[in-house]
């Protein structure tokens, strides 16, 4: 018997693992989970016979987990372990037909072992009766769903004349098509109840079978994501998917998105092509909601040159605290990102998070830590479902950071020079002139030169060269060769870099390192 533990308290999980003599009971502890969402994923993967589950869990409570788990394996047995004595929990557990309801505060390991042993005997007896009668405990509809779920999960055995398999014996004709195609259907009506969502799934089955006939082989639901995974024989054009989507929408008044995979020949590659189809749904991150997606190259991991240029520009603007310019570039970047092929959303979220940390780092010196890292905001970045939502979060933080910098007690001259210093630090990789820097800040170059010396007691050029040598020393200590350092700092050749270094430090780079 395969057993699973679902418990968010580590000590309770460890206690159960050690206190229960699993092997003596003829059981194997195959997996454990700390929250409801993880539990569901592990349950689908391992399909345990018996599950010990807490009610109060993060992400999804134990009763909801049991409800969803029973759609995947109705014959599994569930034992609830809880600190709650609320009768409403007990009534819900009874409605879900759980095997037992135990309080953690009065839990007796011997009692738990007796319950486990009785459940094991009950399950074995049912299996024996099913084998003896030649009829499985599940009806054909449930057996069919189990078959397609096993097929999609990649755990369906290959037909073997020396080994009898009930699933393959009954449904193996579905594997014999010459070509296959995977669809992933996404429902956007989040307000539907669980029963209504299940009803939508039944409607999808009926309308698909009606439109495609025997070409529709079957499918399996993914209720937590409100998705359905379908598989067809042959290859349907995108226009067929559009007509099907319209028919379902008219029948139920629902907004659906459909992702269609490329055709494939090996039935055991359904899992791979299903994932490729699901990837196409990421186009919805860019505002294309409720469409039919059928282009293999719609989603990409390669950042375009236009996006790369804007990313570098925004990174530099953030480093020099040019937040107003950065705000303008956010719109340009979003416009470039909305051109297909689309980047995988996690890549975009990583990019925007880099901007966040760059803003916070640049503000640290100017605002004396008043603009600090906000890890809850980072979480919101990664939870964003749309690019526009992500852009709004970044714009809000730019406004907040800009206000903090402007309201800091330093005088305007000092603020300006601190911003210019940040700008210089982000441009040490190339030759940086006074005129270019003045243009970046919309200033007269002569005024900038006088202001820089007034605030820092050194010239603009002296400061730039000192910062370049500081970076060079750090790179040398990290083991980088002088030729590489010279190129990294924007010098045409090693001799130019050496002359600069000697002018500032009084000795050549190699002699400096010998001394230190």
Automatic annotation (TrEMBL):
Q: Which PROSITE patterns match?
A: HTH_ARAC_FAMILY_2 (PS01124), RESPONSE_REGULATORY (PS50110)
Q: Where are the transmembrane segments?
A: none
Database matches in InterPro entries: CheY-like_superfamily (IPR011006), Homeodomain-like_sf (IPR009057), HTH_AraC (IPR018060), Sig_transdc_resp-reg_receiver (IPR001789), Tscrpt_reg_AraC-type_HTH (IPR020449)
Q: What sequence ranges are listed for the domain Response regulatory?
A: 2-119
An example of a Gene Ontology BP annotation on this entry? phosphorelay signal transduction system
Keywords assigned = DNA-binding, Phosphoprotein, Transcription, Transcription regulation
| Descriptive protein name | AraC family transcriptional regulator
């Amino acid at each position: 018997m395969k057993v699973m533990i679902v418990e968010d308290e580590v000590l309770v999980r460890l206690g159960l693992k050690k206190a229960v003599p699993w092997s003596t009971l003829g059981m194997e502890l195959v997996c454990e989970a700390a929250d409801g969402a993880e539990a569901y994923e592990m349950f689908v993967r391992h399909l345990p016979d018996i599950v010990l589950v807490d009610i109060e869990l993060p992400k999804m409570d134990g009763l909801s987990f049991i409800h969803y788990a029973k759609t995947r394996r109705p014959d599994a047995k569930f034992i609830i372990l809880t600190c709650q004595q609320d009768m409403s929990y007990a009534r819900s557990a009874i409605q879900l037909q759980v095997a037992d309801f135990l309080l953690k505060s009065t839990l007796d390991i011997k009692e738990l072992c007796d319950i486990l042993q009785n459940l094991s005997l009950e399950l074995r007896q049912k299996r024996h009766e099913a084998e003896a009668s030649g009829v499985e405990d599940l009806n054909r509809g449930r057996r069919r769903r189990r078959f397609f779920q096993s097929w999609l999960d990649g755990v369906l055995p290959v037909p073997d004349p020396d080994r009898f398999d009930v699933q393959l014996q009954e449904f193996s004709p579905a594997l014999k098509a010459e070509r296959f195609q995977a669809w992933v259907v996404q429902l956007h009506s989040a307000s539907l109840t669980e029963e209504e969502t299940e009803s939508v799934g039944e409607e999808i089955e009926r309308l698909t079978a009606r439109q495609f006939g025997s070409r529709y082989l079957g499918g399996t639901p993914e209720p937590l994501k409100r998705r359905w995974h379908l598989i067809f024989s042959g290859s349907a054009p995108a226009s067929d998917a559009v007509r099907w989507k319209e028919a379902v929408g008219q029948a139920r008044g629902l907004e659906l998105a459909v992702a269609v995979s490329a055709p494939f020949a090996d039935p055991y590659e359904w899992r791979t092509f299903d994932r490729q189809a699901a990837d196409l749904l990421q186009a919805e991150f860019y505002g294309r909601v409720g469409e039919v997606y059928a282009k293999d190259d719609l989603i990409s991991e390669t950042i375009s040159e236009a996006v790369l240029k804007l990313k570098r520009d925004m990174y530099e603007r953030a480093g020099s605290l040019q937040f107003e310019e950065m705000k303008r570039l956010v719109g340009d970047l979003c416009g470039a990102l909305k051109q297909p092929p689309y980047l995988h959303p996690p890549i975009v979220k990583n990019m925007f998070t880099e901007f966040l940390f760059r803003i916070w780092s640049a503000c640290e010196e100017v605002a004396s830590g008043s603009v600090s890292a906000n890890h809850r905001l980072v979480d919101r970045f990664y939870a964003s479902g749309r690019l526009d939502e992500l852009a709004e979060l970044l714009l809000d933080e730019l406004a907040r950071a800009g206000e903090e910098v402007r309201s800091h007690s330093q005088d305007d001259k000092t603020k300006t020079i601190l911003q210019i210093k940040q700008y210089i630090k982000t441009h040490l990789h190339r030759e940086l002139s006074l005129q270019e820097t003045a243009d970046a800040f919309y200033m007269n170059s002569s005024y900038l030169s006088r202001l820089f010396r007034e605030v820092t007691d050194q010239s603009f050029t002296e400061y730039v060269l000192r910062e370049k040598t500081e970076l060079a020393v750090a790179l040398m200590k990290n083991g980088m060769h002088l030729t590489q350092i010279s190129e990294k700092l924007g010098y045409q050749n090693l001799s130019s870099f050496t002359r600069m270094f000697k002018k500032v430090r009084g000795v050549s780079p190699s002699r400096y390192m010998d001394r230190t």
